[in-house]
Amino acid sequence: MRRSVLTTVPLLLIALLLGGCGGKTNNNSSAGTTPSTGTSASQPTAGSTAPTTAAADTCPASNTKSFAKTKFVAHVGLAAGSFHRWIWKPYKAGTFSKGAHGRLKATIKAGLTAAFIAHEVKVASDDVSASPALCKVLKKPLVALGNQLSDLKSKITGGDLSSLDGVNTAIAGVTTLSDKNGAQITETSQN
């Protein structure tokens, strides 16, 4: 009984966080206008969680969202902590290897965590877009991280772990840049 509760609680927390975060955001686009019909090479693909490249090139002159820096720090802290707790540590321990004890459960948790992390990075990217100071430094690295995370869930559940080193490096790069620019990231994860 205790073991099933320990497995179910983290999965429920992840589901709640996915459903509860990232509500309404204040984008710099005008409401009620129709999008232009011109073609652009920076359009995201279907199912992509990363913002467009054009959005990465524009930063606001003043804050467009309350507590954008604080929200960014919280979302990146959750993403980094969850990645290291549920994906990186089991990967380094060999839990995803064929024949490893608990491989199926670890793979399911890692797949759910990958979806959660992609969501948190998207929300963090929206927060960075609202802060002129953070946008200039962190928008492009977050877009790159979002691109790496866009298909991480399917890769993990399919057994392809080749991109985990790159994702770990990208997360470390974002947290280092953030720390250098006054937004101290503290990794947290949902247990």
Automatic annotation (TrEMBL):
Ranges for region Disordered: 27-56
Superkingdom assignment: Bacteria
Biased composition (Low complexity): 29-56
PROSITE patterns, A to Z: PROKAR_LIPOPROTEIN (PS51257)
Leader sequence residues: 1-20
Keyword line: Signal
Protein name (Swiss-Prot/TrEMBL): Lipoprotein
Source organism per UniProt: Kribbella aluminosa
